[in-house]
Amino acid sequence: LSETKIEPPVLAPAQTAQAAVPVAPVATVAPAGVIMVGDSRCVQMQAAVGGGGCSWICENSKEYTWFSEVAIPKFDPYVGYGTKVVINMGVNDPEHYRQYAELINAKAAEWSLRGATTYLVSVNPVWENPYTDQADVDTFNANVPGMLSGVTWIDTSSWLNANGYRLVDGLHYDAPTYVNIFNLIMGSL
Fold first, then answer.
1. For the chain, what is the largest distance between any 2 Cα atoms, rounded to a whole number of angstroms?
2. Of 4, 145, 167, 176, which one is least surrounded by beta carbons within 10 A?
3. Which of 99, 96, 100 is nearest to 37 (CA)?
4. Tens digit of pLDDT for each residue in 154-180?
5. What region, left, alpha or beta, does residue 51 occupy, with left being phi > 0 and alpha being psi -120 to 50 degrees?
6. 180 close to 173: Cβ distance less than 8 angstroms
7. How far is CA 19 from CA 22, 38, 132, in A?
8. This prediction's pTM
9. Euclidean distance between CA atoms 189 and 85, whole angstroms
């Protein structure tokens, strides 16, 4: 019998930040008890991964006020022992990074007493769009990790910049990129 060695795909060197993304990645399945909270990027990620075994609290075009006044009250009663709260907010209002960090720290302390773990995902890259710019995203990502207490930072942005992604409108990604982001998040839990 001969043994066949399978080589990983070789990608061409990136010529732009929008380098080649491997074709049709497959989404992993989330561990039990994952609550994904986010804006339109989460709505589209949920669609790309077919739910992925998570509970999703996400809506299009949402910002800090929705997160604090609608999203948290919606899922807070369900946070308990073994819950993993994954927050993917900030692209629509990265200038509110201080408010996000303060609220997430406070809630993470409360959720920790219930046996839950809290994660905050970086704001991922953008290109020209009418809502935000990369400089504001970079400010969010540079400041927030050092402000967190009892919260695990998941830096998907650096991975995307190093390995490639595809934006379809300057703000939202194609399905394979969302699957890669989801897999990175699940691998960090």
1. 63
2. 4
3. 100
4. 999 999 999 999 999 999 999 999 999
5. left
6. no
7. 10, 25, 22
8. 0.85
9. 10
